[in-house]
Task: inverse folding
């Protein structure tokens, strides 16, 4: 039987999908205003690729902010579990995962392939991707352009711990005529400092993996490495850590079902 294992990670900003098995693929799309609508669009895209969900041959695990909206999922699993499983694939059985998402930041400690401990900050957006998006909009650039500008600037201090007040600081800096490169660098360093301060609340493993939408960005990983005073791994696949972990769990759950029912 041709089988597929599908991991769907619907975050607050973007939805990530990983398919393993007979066919392998991955894609990302904006979450938009409705997680249910996003889940339907994902299903249509999978069908267009010849992957029919809801049948015997496909196992689906959903995770992330909008996981409950995936009505055709066979299993719904927490973000912590899925990111840990995906991070293990990318950084080994003993690693620390720092996930900078659109609305929250997570630190997950993995020891011998299992979740040992974790922290989640979902109360403040100052150390998240949303903060960077807001500041990029204020500077009139895209997120990619923000990082490119920052890499050429000298960071100006942005001291506010609140997104609203930090935005006011940026507006003041713009009014003073400060270079956009320096303001952009200040923004990126501010976020990295907040993430590092949060992560230092736990004793990190030697291997530290950056996941989430910022994971493919070597400049952010470099700045975060400086703030943490240890190397942070930056991989393009890090963005799909949650979806990859969900796909691996889908496969493991299918194997367990077969074992329980004696279907080999």
Result:
């Amino acid at each position: 039987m041709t089988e597929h294992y599908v991991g769907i990670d619907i975050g607050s900003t973007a939805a990530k999908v990983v398919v393993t098995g007979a066919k392998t693929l991955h894609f990302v799309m904006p979450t938009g205003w409705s997680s249910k609508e996003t889940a339907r669009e994902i299903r249509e895209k999978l069908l267009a690729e010849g992957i029919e969900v809801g049948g015997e041959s496909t196992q689906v695990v959903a995770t992330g902010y909008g996981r409950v909206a995936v009505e055709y999922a066979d299993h719904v699993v927490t973000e912590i579990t899925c990111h840990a499983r995906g991070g293990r694939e990318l950084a080994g059985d003993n690693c620390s995962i720092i996930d900078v998402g659109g609305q929250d930041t997570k630190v997950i400690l993995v020891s011998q392939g299992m979740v040992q401990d974790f922290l989640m900050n979902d109360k403040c957006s100052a150390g998240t991707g949303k903060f960077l998006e807001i500041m990029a909009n204020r500077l009139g650039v895209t997120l990619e352009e923000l990082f490119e500008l920052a890499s050429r600037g000298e960071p100006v201090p942005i001291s506010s711990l609140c997104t609203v007040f930090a935005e006011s600081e940026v507006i003041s800096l713009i009014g003073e005529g400060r270079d956009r490169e320096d303001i952009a660098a200040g923004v990126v360093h501010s976020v990295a400092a907040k993430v590092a301060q949060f992560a230092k609340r736990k004793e990190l493993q030697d291997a530290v993996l950056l996941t989430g939408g910022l994971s493919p960005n070597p400049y952010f990983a470099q700045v975060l490495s400086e703030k943490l005073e240890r190397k942070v791994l930056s991989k393009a696949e890090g963005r799909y850590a949650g979806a990859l972990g969900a796909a691996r769990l889908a496969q493991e759950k299918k194997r367990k079902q077969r074992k329980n029912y004696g279907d080999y």
Q: What stands out?
A: The CA atoms of residues 94 and 111 lie 5 Å apart.
